[in-house]
Amino acid sequence: MSFLTGWRAALRIARRDALRAKGRSALVVAMIALPVLGVTAADVTYRSSTSTTAEKLTAEMGAADAVFSSAGAGRVPVEQLPDRTLWETVTDRPTAPDDASPEPVGIRDALPKGATYLTEQSVAAAVTTRHGITETEIVELRTSAPALRGRIELVDGAYPAHDDEVVATEGFLESTGLHVGSRTTLRGPGRAYTITGSVELPADLGKKALYADPGAVIAPWKKAADGDPGIAPPQPDETKWLVDGPAGAGIRWADVLAANRTGLLVLSRQVVLDPPPDSEVPYATQPSPDYGDGSAELGAAVVTVVAMAVLEIVLLAGPAFAVGARRSRRQLGLLGTCGGDRSQVRAVVLAGGAVLGAAGAVAGVAAGLVLTVLFRPLIEGWTGSRFGELEIRGWEVLAIAVIGLVTGVLAALAPAIVAGRQPVLESLTGRRGTRRSSRVLPVVGCVITAGGVAVAVFGGTTGDTTLVAGGSVVAELGVLACIPVIVGLLGRLGARLPLSPRMALRDAARNRGRTAPAVAAVMAAVAGTVAIATYTSSVMAEHAYDHIPTLTPGTAALVADSPSSVDQLGRARAAARQNLAVSGERADIARVWAGSDCGVYYEEENGCGTLTLVKPTGDGHSCPLQGAGARKLAEGLSAEAHQALMRTPACTDEYISAAAFYTGESHIVVGDAALLTSYVKLDDPAAAEALADGTPVLLNPAYARDGQVTLKAVHTYNPRDTANRRLHPGEPRTTTDRLKVYVAPAKYATTPGIRMILPRSTASRLGLHTEDYASLFAVAHTPTDAEQQMMSAAFAQAGNGVHLQTASGPESRDEDVILLILALFAGVVTVGAAAITTGLAKADAEADLTTLSAVGAPPGVRRSLSGFQCVVVALTGVLLGTAAGIVPAVALRRVDLRKAMAAMREQPMDSAYTPVVMPWETIGLLAVAVPLVAGLLAAVFAGSRQALTRRAG
C-alpha cells in the first residue's frame, strides 16, 4: 500500500468515525473553532480599526487636498517635515528673509492659482440644554461642503442652511438631552440656534460639539460684545483652511514650501502619500526623535497568545481523542489483524485529528468573519471610531486556519502513539491493561517548579522582566508535570466521603490521562488571569495611595470665584439642595487673612498681609525627607521604613495644598462643627465642643507643641484698601499668638485643603478678617452630566460667580472592566474544561454506570456523580492556577519596587509604596462560584436514568 493510499484510507476511516460519534466530534470541532474564531475576529478587527495613512488624512481633511494652518508666529517663515509632525521657525537662521513680520497670516497669497478653500475656526462656549447649561465647542465650518465627506457625516436631519442653524454630534445630543429640531441658546449674546441635524466624526465618535456655517457664531458674538460691555467677547482658536488645489494638481511640495515662507504649515495628502526626497526638504537636516513603534513587543505578545491558545486546545482536545481511540480500539485491533502495522494505526488516529481540525478551522474562520460583520457597529462604538473598510488579509486568515488544523493533529498525537503501542489482543478483548505512573516525572516537576520560582524571584530582584517571564513559564511547566501525581492523590481523599464524591475522586485518579490535561488547561487559564489580576489590583492600589485628592470622598463644593460674588452663594446652595444628591449636612467655610486681602491686591508688591501657622522644629515636626541630609537618609531606608515616614503628619503636610478651594498658604479656614462631620469626617463631640468654645481644631499634629500652635500675622494694608485701613490705622505690624488647640488624630492630617479650623470669634479677637467663601456638601454620588448642567443654569441665573467642584478618585473603570473580562474568560475555560472532562468520563464509564443501575443505585446518583466530577476538575485547576499565577505577579512587583526605590533615593519625597494586593473578588469568583456553577450545570444536564444493557466480556 503506497503512502498516499494509506493516508487516503485513514482519512476515510476518520471521517466515518467522526460522523458516527457526532457528539464527541462536535465537541472537538467546537474546541478548535472557538480559539480560531477569536483570533480571526481579532485579526480582522485590528486590521480594520487600524487606520492607514490615507484614512488618517481623510479623518483630518475629509476629501480636501490639504490643511493649511498658522504656525502661531505671524508671517515668520517656517520649515517642516512633509508630514508636518515636526517644524520650527527660521528667524534665528542666517537665511531668514528680511521681510519677516509678526503680522497675521493670510491664506490667499499662500495658495497656488486656481485653488479653493474652506475656513475652520472653533470657540469654547456655554449653551443651553434640556437640563440647563453646558460648556462645549462650537466649530464654524461649512459641513455641507463635499470636501468634508469622510471627515463629517450626516446621520439624521439636514445640514445648516441659515445663520441661525447648527448641527450637533451624537455625543452632544446624548449628554444634553436635546434632539434634532431642538433649540439651544448661546450664553452671552443670547443668540438662539436650531439643531437641524446630527452628525458624526468617523474618527472620533465620542466628540461633543456643535457645527455652524462660517460667520454664524463668532462674528455676531463679537458684535454683541462690542455693543454691550457686560458680554464677554469670544476667544476663538487659530483659523484653519481646508484647501482643494487646482483641478487634478493637488497641493505639491513646491506649494508647501511657498506656504512655509509666509508662515503657514501645510498637511498635504499628495505630499504625505508621495513624499519628496530628503534633498528637497530643508528641515530634513534636523534630527528627529525615534520613539520606536513597539512592533517587537507586539509581535512577542501575539506569539505568546497564539502559543497559549494552541496549548489550551491540545490540553482540552487531547483527552477527547484518547477516549475516541479507546472506544475504537476494537476497530483498530481489526486493522492490525488485517495486516496493518503500528504506523497505520497511528495514521487513523492522526487522521481523526486532521479531519476534526480542518472542520474546526473552517468553521472558526467563517464564524469569526460573520461575527465581526454582525458586531461591527458595537466594536466601532467601543473603539470610538469607524472602520475605514473591512480589511481581510487572505494569508493571515489562511495561517490562522492552518494553526487550527495543526492544533487538531497535535491534540491527536499522544493518543495516536498510545493506540499504536496497544497490543492487538488487548484491543480485540477490550482490556485496558495496567500501567504504573512514572516516579521520575513528579520529582523532575518539583525541581523545575522550584527552579522556575527562583529564576522569577531573581529576575524581580534584579529588575530583569525577561527572567521573570521565563521563570514563571518554567515554574508553570513544572506544575504541569506534577499534575498527574496530584490527581492521583485526590483518590485518597474520598475514603470517608459519601458515594458520589468518593466515586468522582477515584474516577479522576484512575483516569489521569483524561483528568490531568483538563486540570492543566484550567490551571493555565487561571494562572494567566490571576497573574494579570494580581498585578492590576496592585497597581490600582498604588495609584490610590499616591493620589492626592482635591476633596474628601463623597463631597462636592460650591466655591465663589471672587469676593464680589460671595452673595451668590445663597442661591447656589438652594440649587444644590434641589439638583444634587445631597446626603448630609451642609458646611460653610470662610477665608481668613491678615491686613489687606492678597486675593484682591496681589498686583502690588508688599501690598497685602500674611498669615502663617508656624511649624515647630525637631523630631515629629519637620519632615526628615526634606532638606539637608534627606538623600543620605533615603539611601539607608527600606520601602517599609520610607512608607512609615511618608505617612507621618510632618511629611503628609507637604501635599495639603491640592484642594478644590483656595485657603491660602496657611490652609486655615473658618468653620463650625458641621465642617467636622460633613467634610473632615471627624465625628468627635470633644472637637465640636472645642469649636463652640472658641478653641481651634488642628488637623495636623506636627504644628502643635504642648497642645498649642504659633500663629504669625503680618498686618500690612494696601493704600487702596480704605475700608480695612480705617479699622486698623498706623504702621504695619506683626503679631505672634500662641493658641491652645484641640489636636485631631494624625490620620486627619491629609484632609484636602485644611490644616486648621478657626472659630470666627477667635479670628475676630486676633484682629483677622473673614469672609464667606464656599459651601461643602456630602453627596451620595458624583454629579451626572444632567445634574452639572442644571447647576450651571442655576449659577448663570445667580450671576455666574460660583462654580461647582467635585471629588475625583484615582480608580479607573477600565481596570475594573479588565478584571471582569479576565474572570469571565477564565470562568468560561474552567467550565468548558470541566464539562468536557465530565462528558468524556460519562462516555468512558457507561459500563460502570450500567452496573450501578443494575445493583439498585438511585437515579440521582448519576446526576450527583457528574456534578462532583465537574467540581473536582474545576476546583483542582483553579487552586493550582491561583498558586502558579501569584509567582509572576509578585516578581513583576519586585521589579516595580526596584525602580521605585531608585527614584526615591534620587527624590526622597517620591513615594516608594509598591504593594502586592491579591484580587480576592476574582479569586473567590473562580474558586467558589465557577466550580459550583460547573457542577450544577453538569448535574442538571446529566440524565438520571440509564437503559440497562448486557456488559460484554
Domain count, please report it.
Answer: 3
Approximately what portion of the residues adopt beta-strand conformation? 5-15%
Share of helical residues: 40-55%
* Count of helical regions: 30
Unreliable stretches covering 5 or more consecutive residues: 1-5, 94-103, 288-301
Query: What characteristic shape results from the CA principal axes?
Result: globular
Mean pLDDT: 79
> What's the Cα radius of gyration?
37 Å
**Structural class estimated from helices and strands:** alpha+beta
Q: Can you offer a commentary on this structure?
A:
It contains 30 helices and 23 strands. With 953 residues, it is an alpha+beta fold. It folds into 3 domains: 57-285, no CATH class; 441-547 and 812-953, no CATH class; 548-806, no CATH class. Strands 1, 4, 5, 6, 7, 8, 9, 10, 11 and 12 form a 10-stranded mixed β-sheet that branches. Strand 4 (116-128) and strand 5 form a beta hairpin. The two termini are 34 Å apart. InterPro entries: ABC3_permease_C (IPR003838), Macrolide_Exporter_MacB (IPR050250). Residues 306-422 form the ABC3 transporter permease C-terminal domain. This is FtsX-like permease family protein. The chain crosses the membrane at residues 298-324, 345-375, 395-419, 440-461, 473-495, 516-535, 817-836, 870-891, 923-943.
